[in-house]
Specification:
Number of domains: 2
Distance between the termini: 66 Å
Number of strands: 0
Oligomer: single chain
């Protein structure tokens, strides 16, 4: 028996090189698949129970149902009055329009930043990723207007 252990472990108790030390922790895939199936089978009863709890005034049940029916939005469509972008020279006025919309409270800073990232990506598409000369200057100006890092 000790010969078998010497093949598996070093004298200090660590596993010998090339020996993984056993099968490891079982993967959760099978367990998760089983849970998914059980929940799918019991789905109508679970929904009925949650509805009954919600109708009885259980705020947590109401919150859970509403989160599934009407999830929290991670953003909203925004509309900003800005000139159409036809050339890279149009990027700066559009960036200024975004900045003004944020400063006037029409957009949150997060919405302005997200719109600014779209604008910078649009500029990259128009220029093929070039960053030198007038194109680079226009991109830098847009980044400054929308408050993005250079």
């Amino acid at each position: 028996m000790s010969d078998e252990l010497s093949d598996i472990r070093q004298p200090n108790g660590r596993f010998a090189k090339g020996n993984p030390g056993g099968p490891g922790r079982p993967r959760a895939v099978e367990r998760v698949r089983e849970y998914d199936q059980r929940v799918a089978d019991a789905g109508p009863e679970l929904i009925d129970a949650a509805l009954a709890q919600a109708q009885g005034g259980n705020l947590k049940a109401i919150e859970m149902l509403l989160d599934r029916i009407w999830p929290v939005r991670r953003g909203r469509p925004v509309q900003v009055e800005a000139p159409e972008i036809r050339t890279t020279a149009d990027l700066l006025p559009v960036g200024a329009a975004l900045t003004n919309a944020v400063l006037d409270g029409e957009l949150t800073p997060e919405e302005g930043s997200a719109a600014g990232r779209v604008l910078v990506a649009h500029g990259r598409m128009k220029t093929g990723g070039a960053g030198a000369g007038a194109v680079g200057g226009a991109r830098q100006g847009v980044r400054q207007c929308v408050g993005m890092a250079a």
